[in-house]
Write a structure and sequence with these properties.
- This protein is of the alpha/beta class.
- Helix content is about 30%, strand content about 30%.
- It has a domain of about 160 residues: P-loop containing nucleotide triphosphate hydrolases (Rossmann fold).
- A 6-stranded mixed beta sheet has the order 6-7-8-3-9-10, with helices on both faces. A 4-stranded antiparallel beta sheet has the order 2-1-4-5, covered by helices on one side.
- Strand 4 and strand 5 form a beta hairpin.
- Helix 4 crosses helix 5 and helix 5 packs parallel to helix 6.
- The longest helix has 18 residues.
- It is globular and about 50 Å long.
- The chain starts with a strand and ends in a 12-residue tail after the last strand.
């Protein structure tokens, strides 16, 4: 999935004041590789991530998915995009406390009914992430790292074209964080997904990754993997 972002702005009102979160973002996200969005707290990283996933809409500007402007999509198409093509991994995991690890992975499929094949694929993914013996455990009986692995399995079960992760290692120790990012790289490469990770932690980045640095709502720098790759535009 190829994503282009052109002069995207996002603001909201707080009382009599207008708060500008994004001030003209222009960049691109190449398909099938890892992208990191980095910057200080309050710089607009998470706001940009939610716009890319169709969870919010920009105040102005354009985001296009494989050349198709999202601003021209109907609400039903936006819902289909989120449901079928995007895997979200949130910092707080967003697991349902009354469901088991296996059931949490299957949650996106429950409204339409879970097939035997989907249930088996969920078991295999949880086994792959080291939770094969904890399928029936609820979140309160799982560590933070284990909960994050459930969230990753849930995001990958539908084989998304786009994976969006908001501070996926923010609540984890360094060793578990390395394992989670390594696992995400390994599993996402098998599906050739575009992966966009918002983070404060630069220790997980490699020379093969795109790094987009945002400050005060503007992309101020984009590092591309090597000179042979035509990278995203920078603002």
């Amino acid at each position: 999935m190829h994503i282009t972002v052109k002069d995207v702005r996002k603001s909201f009102r707080r009382g009599e004041s207008e708060i500008q979160v994004l001030r003209g973002i222009t960049c691109a996200f190449a398909p099938g590789v890892f992208h990191f969005i980095v910057g200080p707290s309050g710089s607009g990283k998470s706001s940009l991530l939610y716009l890319l996933g169709g969870l919010d809409t920009p105040t102005s500007g354009e985001i296009a998915i494989d050349g198709s402007p999202m601003g021209q999509w109907s609400e039903s198409r936006r819902n289909r995009f989120r449901g079928a093509q995007v895997g979200f991994i949130f910092q707080n995991f967003n697991l349902m406390s009354n469901l088991s690890a296996l059931e949490n992975v299957l949650v996106p499929f429950m409204p339409a009914g879970v097939s035997n094949e989907q249930r088996e694929q969920a078991r295999q993914l949880l086994t792959r992430v080291g939770l094969g013996k904890r399928l029936t455990h609820r979140p309160s009986h799982l560590s933070g790292g284990e909960q994050q692995r459930v969230a990753i399995a849930r995001a990958l079960l539908k084989r998304p074209s786009l994976i969006l992760a908001d501070e996926p290692t923010g609540e984890l120790d360094s060793q578990t964080g390395n394992e989670v990012l390594g696992l995400l790289r390994e599993l996402s490469s098998e599906h050739q997904a575009t992966v966009i990770v918002v983070t404060h932690d630069t220790s997980h980045m490699t020379s093969a990754d795109f790094v987009h640095r945002i400050h005060d709502g503007v992309i101020v720098e984009t590092r591309v993997p090597n000179p042979a790759i035509v990278g995203p535009e920078t603002d």
